Amino acid sequence: MYGKAFAPEYQGSLTTLSVNSSLVDVLAAGTEQLRAAERGGSPGEAARAGLAVAEAHRRLGQVGEADREWKASYRAARTAGDLGAMAWALWSGGTLARQRGALALAWRLLGLAAEFGERGGDIVVRGYSLAGMAETGRIQGDYEAVGALHERLLAEARKRGEARHTVWALEGIAQMHRNTGSYDSAYAMFQEAAEIAAGADDRRGHAWALRGMADIVSVRDGDVEQALELLSGAELTCREMNLVSALAYNHKMRGNVLYRAGRYEEARAMYEQALDEFRDMSEPRGEGLARLGLIKSLARLGRDRARTDEDLSELADVLERIGLRHARRMVDRAREEFGLTEVMEVAL
């Protein structure tokens, strides 16, 4: 049995906040408590309030503010001599680094967070940090290196009955299965994640699971309307909770569904919307994926082959620099889709 989902990143006087609290509300409450802690000369409380502020900014796509706040939280925690709070600040910083495409930095910060969490006796932040490292490896496409870690974290979360972490692990493993063509097992995992999230009142996790289910329904079954319906349900949650990043990925997935259905003009519009959203929040991975969809849609709408080849080459270079190997392979498949492999070989 799983208990109700909780948000361990909301600490100190902010433990009353729910995993489903609006990020705008989290930011307001966190900022108020942070200022009070600073006035009262309580660095420990400032560190924990600052963590909530940093996370709200990050999830709202306000990366500059998030970067400033996690560092301030870490400094306050260090002043207080609180290893657990230092670990949480490093976890926030590592998660932000991954969001910004700084994957090597993300790995280093999350590794330090896991180490500090273990030294400080905080098994939750240790688990979240290891999960962050697993996710960093997964989005790079290094499934062999992090697959076992995902499975181990899933087993630990199931044993503790921790719904939110179980949902996260299931979704990560499901994504790897989906990307390697194991659609049935991927769908089963996304579906289980959705059921656990719904039972635990984890609306964020439920929205991500619905997005995964929509992807499988589209690519495996060709059921466009069911996929769009699932995405619409997830989008409602994203808007109500101000989940800016999740909403952008939802729009990108809607573009994927429309593209597969041959509805290229609609797909182009969705990819353009998602691209703007990712650029607004400085999220290069999402930006790269949306750009790929847009390039493919424009090619289907009659864009010149040379321009398509040029755009794909530029995007491949960007993804290579970031270290997104799976996304880089997607560019290669796009070349094959449009018969551009010979063009590439001649250019080389």
UniProtKB/TrEMBL annotation:
Keywords: Cytoplasm, Repeat, TPR repeat
Signal peptide: none
First-listed, main subcellular location of the protein, grouped into a coarse class: cytoplasm
Annotated SMART domains: TPR
Protein's cellular compartments: Cytoplasm
Gene3D superfamilies given in the database record: Tetratricopeptide repeat domain
Pfam hit, one: TPR_12
Gene Ontology annotations for the cellular component aspect, listed alphabetically: cytoplasm
Family: Belongs to the Rap family.
Name of protein: Tetratricopeptide repeat protein
Organism phylogeny: Bacteria, Bacillati, Actinomycetota, Actinomycetes, Kitasatosporales
